[in-house]
């Protein structure tokens, strides 16, 4: 679909510029974010006098479920109880968070598919995993799209819609380098297609969905909460990541300088994450309330119903899980996949071994 492409590219550029505003925070307060609640303001003012001498760990966050364990730590002051304090900084997405790592603005954080770029280009390290999900990532088209009518092309994946004839040349809107991008590439793979067979345009998720509704593209790749909006609006899901054979994982990532120079603090943070993950799994009502408040304070307000749906599609990874779980399997799959598509240089595959560390999750509490 070439109609309106110039306008779409201008909108995409604006969306990317807005996403990069997440890098503008200096990280000098206890919580830097676009929308701060009273607790954040109190922390920024210095918090309790008794915490002034505690060592600080700079923690990157995003206004998504990915950062909910860190928010639990912050709200319940698990960091202070463990003998350190978090200095949190909010980013819009994983892309500006990666760029901030290059400027040495944070020590640890959590992200999804963007970790591949971080490992490959910024020497980011993967030191744990936060959650895994089986829903909430998919490629959507409008009900009258020819893609929605093409069923059964790949018998091994009966829920995947589309075929080479209906998909080739399609304009697909998505935020590049994210989980949606990965989902789209997996969908194309199941149809025997590659990235050069379609026209992928970089665009913020919400804007992309608006463009689909306005008939300005052929397909969009969505995550929550926009994913649920599309389902409710009757859009047709042509490829869900769960149907494509992959369980999506959000990872705990770190600055190499922190891993090598702040090992004790990083270990304490990982121990707090394990405790937070167990608490969130054990009390869904508390988790939903926390998520509603967290997103509101971060300027990404969502309904409680949406938060409950989001929580219902994930399972947080606890200390018990690490008895028979290995760090980085999903990251390696992502890395190998992008290399196979020519999106990363083949020699970078070594980084998905050297930059994945299991010591922290296998140690501590």
UniProtKB/TrEMBL annotation:
A Pfam short name: NMT1_2
GO cellular component labels: periplasmic space
Chain segments carrying region Disordered: 28-49
Domain of life of the organism encoding this protein: Bacteria
Signal peptide: 1-25
Keyword Signal set for record: yes
Listed transmembrane segments: none
Alphabetized UniProt keyword annotations: Signal
Compartment(s) where it occurs, according to its Swiss-Prot or TrEMBL record: Periplasm
Keyword flag Signal: yes
Similarity section: Belongs to the bacterial solute-binding protein SsuA/TauA family.
PANTHER family: ALIPHATIC SULFONATES-BINDING PROTEIN-RELATED (PTHR30024), TAURINE-BINDING PERIPLASMIC PROTEIN (PTHR30024:SF47)
UniProt name for this protein: SsuA/THI5-like domain-containing protein
Organism: Hungatella hathewayi WAL-18680
């Amino acid at each position: 679909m070439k109609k309106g492409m110039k306008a779409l590219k201008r909108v995409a550029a604006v969306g990317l510029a807005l996403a990069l505003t997440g890098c503008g925070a200096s990280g000098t307060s206890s919580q830097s974010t676009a929308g701060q609640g009273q607790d954040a303001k109190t922390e920024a003012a210095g918090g309790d006098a008794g915490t002034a001498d505690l060592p600080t760990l700079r923690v990157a966050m995003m206004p998504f479920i990915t950062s909910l364990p860190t928010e639990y730590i912050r709200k319940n002051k698990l960091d202070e109880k463990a003998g350190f304090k978090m200095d949190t900084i909010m980013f819009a997405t994983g892309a500006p968070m990666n760029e901030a790592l290059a400027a040495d603005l944070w020590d640890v954080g959590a992200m999804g598919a963007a970790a591949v770029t971080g490992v490959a280009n910024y020497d980011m390290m993967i030191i744990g995993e936060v959650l895994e999900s089986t829903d909430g990532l998919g490629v959507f088209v409008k009900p009258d799209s020819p893609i929605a009518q093409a069923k059964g092309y790949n018998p091994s994946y009966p829920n995947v819609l589309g075929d080479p004839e209906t998909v080739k040349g399609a304009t697909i809107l998505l935020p590049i380098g994210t989980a949606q991008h990965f989902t789209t590439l997996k969908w194309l793979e199941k149809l025997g297609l590659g990235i050069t067979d379609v026209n992928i345009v970089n665009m913020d998720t919400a804007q992309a969905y608006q463009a689909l509704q306005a008939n300005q593209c052929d397909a969009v790749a969505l995550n929550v909460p926009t994913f649920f909006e599309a389902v409710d609006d009757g859009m047709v899901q042509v490829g869900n990541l769960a149907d494509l054979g992959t369980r999506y994982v959000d990872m705990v990532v770190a600055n190499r300088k922190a891993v090598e120079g702040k090992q004790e603090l990083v270990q304490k943070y990982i121990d707090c994450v394990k405790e937070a993950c167990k608490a969130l799994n054990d009390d869904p009502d508390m988790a939903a309330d926390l998520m509603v408040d967290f997103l509101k304070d971060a300027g990404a307000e969502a309904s409680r119903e949406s938060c409950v749906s989001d929580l219902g599609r994930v399972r947080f990874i606890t200390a018990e899980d690490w008895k028979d779980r290995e760090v980085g399997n999903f990251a390696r799959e992502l890395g190998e996949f992008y290399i196979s598509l020519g999106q990363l240089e083949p020699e970078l595959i070594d980084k998905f071994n050297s930059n994945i560390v299991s010591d922290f999750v296998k140690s501590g509490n």
